[in-house]
Specification:
Number of helices: 3
Strand order of the largest sheet: 1-2-3-4
Number of strands: 4
Shape: globular
Order of helices and strands: EHEHEHE
Distance between the termini: 39 Å
GO molecular function, one term: oxidoreductase activity
Protein name: L-galactose dehydrogenase (Trinotate prediction)
Number of domains: 1
CATH architecture: Alpha-Beta Barrel
Structural class: alpha/beta
CATH superfamily: NADP-dependent oxidoreductase domain
CATH class: Alpha Beta
InterPro entries: AKR, NAD(P)_OxRdtase_dom_sf, NADP_OxRdtase_dom
Largest sheet: 4 strands, parallel
Pfam family, one: Aldo_ket_red
Length: about 130
């Protein structure tokens, strides 16, 4: 259906990091898994490039160093291959996200967290204008 529209008329975002419906195998943030998952998404979408690519729920990695040393470099390589325009990470824990950002030498285009700046939870304030 996407082929019916001008590619510049919409923005496509997809996420990587969840690779299996089996709970014990659900999260895989390894370099190869990120690249494979991206290629699978592009194939399903029938596209050569997505606008935004996120590693989702990064706090479920067995070690934050995996995100810094494999996941983010894989995202960056995918961006350099022009399979995405923007890269980022998504998760819940603000301190975890901050620590990953501060540990990475690769600059991310986006960081997404959820439920952190609402009437009953303004904890995002302590990280702004980070």
């Amino acid at each position: 259906i996407l082929k019916e529209y001008n590619r510049d008329s919409f923005i496509i975002s997809t996420k990587v990091g969840r690779s299996s419906p089996v709970i014990s195998e659900m999260f895989d943030f390894s370099y190869e898994s990120i690249k494979r998952s991206t290629d699978e998404s592009l194939k399903r979408l029938g596209l050569d490039c997505v606008d935004i690519l996120f590693a989702h729920d990064v706090e479920f990695a067995p070690d934050p160093n995996l995100i810094v040393k494999e996941t983010i470099p894989a995202l960056n390589d995918i961006k350099n291959m022009r399979k995405t325009k923007y890269i980022g990470i998504a998760g819940y824990s603000l301190s975890y996200l901050r620590d990953v950002i501060m540990s990475s030498i690769i600059e991310l285009d986006f960081v997404i967290t959820y439920s952190r700046y609402v009437i009953f939870d303004e904890s995002l304030n302590e990280y702004l204008p980070f």
